[in-house]
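Attaching the record inline, Q. Sequence:
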Amino acid sequence: MTRSQLEYIQKHAKPGESYEQAYERLFGQKDIESISYYQGIRKTLAPKRHTQGDFFVADIMDASIKDDTASMEHPLFALRSGDKRIRVYQHNDTTIEVRPGSRGLATIHDKDVWIYCISQLVEGMNRGKEGISRTVRFTAYDFMVTTNRRTDGDSYKRMGEALERLSESRIVTNIATAGKRERSGFGLIDSWHVIERSGDNRMVSVEVTLPDWLYRSVKAKQVLTLHPDYFRLRKPLDRRIYELARKHCGSQAKWLISLEKLYIKSGSSASLREFRRSAKQLADNNQLPGYRVAFDPSSDKVTFHPR
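Structure, as predicted:
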């Protein structure tokens, strides 16, 4: 199924009709000329729609995975679901207060929405696409496939819950982005809107408005490319440790950090003893994308080597 066919089906599917049923009904018929005509019209109308600047259409299937450097450095996301702790972090001149919503703080798996939107925006800017804005429209199915999720009904429900946690979780900080430091409070997303297909209430199109703080960071290209296997990491702590390794290792031959400092940077709610055991297991498994991890129990330090 091509991109143009998918968009055509989303526009013309009947209530309760599956993608497969709509495809058979719309493209199995002999009157192909009307479909070709519509697709030709769609191509001419798309630039006009994008130049309105109300939202950016995320439709780049081969975009590299990008993450913003500020959230890679600071633990804005929870490593377990239902975490309702109010947390305050101080590092040099930067202060961060993380306030969860009624459903708990947004998790690092919820952050996939951020990463997906950032990746699409950066790739769009690199390609000179029109209509770049902090409101991003995308199909739920594309998001699921890109972030290595299942595409069953439960996954769509979980995505809705993630959007709720992201909008309810609040951050108060003075993090500097694009050379500008200010104290501000914001939700991890400003707003979200879901268009659901009648019948099975499954998401078709999603609009997410990113906070202005994050959008400034993206526009200033304060982002890093993540390993293609990032979305395959199952454990939240492994994802968080990968973020820190990617942020600090850079082009260095290695990055050495004490276990206690890594523990603080991770934002883990586990005990230091449990964290030490997890770090040792990560080193023994040797499966962190892009990095080899070595743990030295005598010095209680962890070293990351680029592969």
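The first strand starts at residue 56 and ends at 57. Residues 30-53 have pLDDT under 50 and may be disordered.

More tomorrow.
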